Amino acid sequence: MSRIALVTLVVDDYDEAIRFYTEALGFRLAEDEPRPDGSRWVVVEPGAAGHGTGLLLARAKNEAQHGRVGDQTGGRVGFFLHTDDFARDHARMRDAGVTFLEEPRHEPYGSVAVFQDLYGNRWDLLQPAQ
Length: 130
What we know:
Blueprint: E1 6-11, H1 14-24, E2 28-34, E3 40-45, E4 54-59, H2 63-68, E5 77-82, H3 86-95, E6 99-100, E7 105-107, E8 110-116, E9 122-128
Parallel strand pairs: 1-4, 5-9
Antiparallel strand pairs: 2-3, 3-4, 6-8, 7-8, 8-9
């Protein structure tokens, strides 16, 4: 096995999630296909195809799933978005309306700032130290 290809992220609405991940975070829409049950197979990916883990955006279907939207990791940072230019991507994301929960920090392991997606899931924007 070479990598984890997809991670499911439960969302309230496909189109608002696609807009956030493509416009605010700069991901690309890799797949958006209707399914026979009325759902959609929606995948967004950072960077070039096949060079990272994609997100399968899955619309919540029941009360239990709706209760997990925005809190899939119990309030912990659950997603780590690596960048090769922290200042550029931090500024672009901030200008696109992304909510950062802290000022950028420069740690021995790299430059980092915690942000939240449109539902409240916590992410690290991280440029690893060289």
